[in-house]
Amino acid sequence: MSSNALKSGLQAGNKNGSTSLLKKKLRKFLNNKLALFGLVVVIIMTLGCVIGAIAGVDFKTPDIKNLKSAPSSLHIFGTDTIGRDLFSRVIYGGCFSIFIGVFCSVMSSIIGTVLGAISGYFGGKIDKFIIRISEIFQAFPQLVLVMMIVAIVGERGLKNLLVIFVITGWMTTYRMVRNEFLSVKGETYVKVSEAFGMSKSRIMFGQILPNVMSPIIVSTTTNVAFFILQEAALSFIGLGVADSTPTWGNILNAAKSVSVVTNQWWIWVFPGLAITLFVLAINFLGDGLRDVLDAKQQ
Amino acid sequence: MENKDIILDVKNLNTSFISDQKKVDIVKSVSFQLKRGTTLAVVGESGCGKSVTMNSIMRFLGNNAQITSDKIQYNALQGEKVVEYQIGAIKKANGPEMRALRGPELSMIFQDPMSSLNPVYKVGDQVAEGLLQHTKLSKKEARQKVLELFRKLGIPDPESRIDCYPHQFSGGMKQRVVIAIAMICNPELIICDEPTTALDVTIQAQIMELLKGLQVNEGKSIILITHNMGLVAEMADEICVMYMGRVVEFGSLEDLFDRTAHPYTKALLRSVPVLGLADDQQLETIPGITPNPADLKEGCEFANRCPDCSEECRKGKIPAFEISKGHRVRCLQYSNFPEVD
Amino acid sequence: MTEKNKEVIFKVNNLKTWFPIKKGALKKVVGNVKAVDGVSLEVYKGETLGIVGESGCGKSTFGKTVMMLEKPVDGQVEFNYNGEFKDITKFSKEEMFDFRKKVQMVFQDPYSALNPQKKIYTSFEEPLIVHGIKSKEEREKIMERVLKMVNIQPDYLQRYPHEFSGGQRQRLCIARALEVMPEVLICDEPVSALDVSIQAQVLNLMKDIQKELNLTYMFIAHDLSVVQYMADRIVVMYLGKIVEIADSKTLYEEPLHPYTKALLSAIPVPDIHNKKKRQILDGEVPSPINKPSGCAFHNRCPLCTDRCKEEDPAMHLHGENGHIVACHKYDQKKD
């Protein structure tokens, strides 16, 4: 067979063989109604928030005439205690909340993956050292860390929160990746690569990592929800982002007073709904991804 | 033949599984009879449906399996009387009727001794479990029975071994314990699903000797599932060769080895390396790959790999022909012989 | 393989691969699993050397140690570089990388030997890229050549491993090992995971490839009948040691060591007319952590004497054809 025949053979094979797997996975995902719902909600909410922010909704200027006004045609979500439009605040705050969730979860996944890969593949002393580090981080209360950093830096801000979430959030991914590496390391194709004399980094990231990607993708997705909730919790007790930057948690902060909870339901219902809906959608999406990607469940 | 001589009579057993909303037939109209006190070997490659057949008889399959049969009859010999059990007609797979049969009448030995035992219980207790379930013996009496059986099965130093945990046993010893579990209620029929595939040859020889002893000395009936033709030659009285869910050939040991009829059986016998082959003797190969049961078309399942395949082989249903008494072959080469179902 | 001046390609001398057992908080070494415990043998160019033994006898570890996938604690493995023997246990990283082109391995489990996330094409291309074949055309030429050898169509390259059957996968694995043009192929149980009707295909294919490329095989398997079909010479191992080496016909016709005899007699033969008398061994292979003193086989041996319990038998040459046996019974110098 000539080289040309090989090439045409390759192309023919391409059409039949390789796409079928992707198609099958896609079909499986599309059949999962909850996951599809999650994906649609996540996309709509993210796009809505980003477009709103770019369009420049006014979330700062208080409407002095309408303090604490209930939802109306002028302010469809109502206004908060100092008269700012809640709809624009939820939209604008969504940008920050989603950004915090996505950024922290991606960054902590990267750190966790790299450390987990090193730990799982090499084993021995390096492994033990990284495990101890992760245990120290896990044992340290996040709240105390937040207050410490606020005290050291002297201001509350987005940056602090991001740094703290990332350095306290990588351990679960790390442990998962380490365990996956430990088990995949024993697979024969890794031995084959060693027998061909491939370099360690090539085996780690070229051979093993693609087989560990599915759980990493799933956990990164669900971690977005986790970090959004974390941020909301910290902001609610007043340790999160500074008041000037709205986030979903920050808006809820106003609902700390009992009179707001009882009299101005719209101030906490709308941001609360936004958080619940988004987190739920992310979790549905994560579950759907797990079903599609995880070979063990097939 | 009378019911007294036949312990298990299976007629037209079909098992299919539902997966991805598609029905896949795994076992197709399997019929056989097992004579009391003999060994039947069920031979075939992985995926040929031999394990599924036995699991269908024992009703061990999950909810996605559909089992239909004309008859699965088990004849128990109680004193002089023959009691017939219609296993196929029992409705609940795990109901009291089926459970009363498993253990005292039929029992099964699985392939992997490592995962057949529960690691957190002492082996003695695991063996005694069946006795406590089916008889009214006290724990002490049960222990005595277990000790007796351990001695019979050649487990050394049974008094101390009975209180050990599975991880303290080697593979061969674990398989003996698994056999003890199967034997403790003194069943008439033992189904062995590849009992030695996970074991070394010297240990395999020990276990096979043990099973043969049970059959010869105690009159047990054994169904041995295997893919090893050597074991078949040593153990079996009758042989049932399966391919892609069908019995392709059934007959006595001599029928199968001396008057091999089906092309698949022939190929199977000639393609396995045996000791003492001449230097330049080539093994015969069976071309092609084992087909996927979901994409099978009509006609003979072996047609695509068969050297003697003709146009006829790819059409319709291939019946079985009886080429001599008790020797049935599902192949159109023998269509001048009487058809049997 | 009868001519006297056969060229040696591998010289293994007193090779030991031990795995330490660590216990306690301080990870003190409390013992060693002596998987390979003093193995010496020579492999000739172009032959198939079969290595048999039961599970736990160290045959797989031996194969991996010869590949340097496991590090030995003692002993030498010398490889013939055009007449000059170099000890690969002392190789630098660069020398080792070069050695990987000389010796390749085919593993037992074809189902996990191909990366499930990668197309066959990628799995085949990577070793070639690593070994410095830069032009895509040249790489595809090599792939095409090796695929032809194992009778697999080139358009299958664009598929994923799960689309292949076990036999096809094992053929792909053999093809991939051949890409770097090795001189020696170490086959670790290459057919034991395959269906019986597929085994013969792979075995015959391996024989054909050997003839075509003048390859040397080290064929490791637990099934003596498969090894006997493939091998010119057979090494029988028991508990990390060699008990007998003989050419395959001699081993079958006149085995010397009691363990070899028992192994031969334990194999069921698909022949209903010549049923042989079974010699059934008692007991099981002892743990490689606490080996029996003296001859490792003495507690199962029907011919065991007091000397066997104390003294480890050395390897003796028996007869003309390089028949080597490690048993006191054949030690003529002392008795």
Radius of gyration of chain C: 21 Å
CATH homologous superfamily caption of the domain at 8-100 and 221-330 in chain C: P-loop containing nucleotide triphosphate hydrolases
Q: What's the total count of β strands of chain B?
A: 14
Strand order of the largest sheet of chain B: 7-8-9-3-10-11-13-12-14
User: DSSP strand (E) fraction of chain C?
Assistant: 25-35%
Order of helices and strands of chain B: EEEHEEEHEHHHHHEHEHEEHHEEE
> How many alpha or pi helices of chain C?
10
Oligomeric state of shown chains: heterotrimer
What is the overall shape of chain C? Answer: globular
Radius of gyration of chain B: 21 Å
GO molecular function, one term (chain B): ATP binding
GO biological process, one term (chain B): peptide transport
Protein name (chain B): Peptide/nickel transport system ATP-binding protein
Family (chain B): Belongs to the ABC transporter superfamily.
Describe the 3D structure.
The complex is a heterotrimer of chains A (298), B (341) and C (335). With 298 residues, chain A is mainly α. Chain A has helices at residues 3-31, 33-55, 86-122, 124-139, 142-153, 158-169, 171-185, 188-195, 200-236, 248-252, 258-263, 265-293. Chain B is built from eleven helices and 14 strands. In chain B, β10 (238-243) and β11 form a beta hairpin. The mean pLDDT of chain B is 88. With 341 residues, chain B is of the alpha/beta class. The longest helix of chain B is centred in the middle third of the chain and has 18 residues, at 201-218. Chain C is built from ten helices and twelve strands. The longest helix of chain C has 18 residues, at 196-213. Classes of the chains: A mainly alpha (298), B alpha/beta (341), C alpha/beta (335). Chains B and C meet through α7, α8, α9, α10 and α11 of B and α6, α7 and α9 of C.
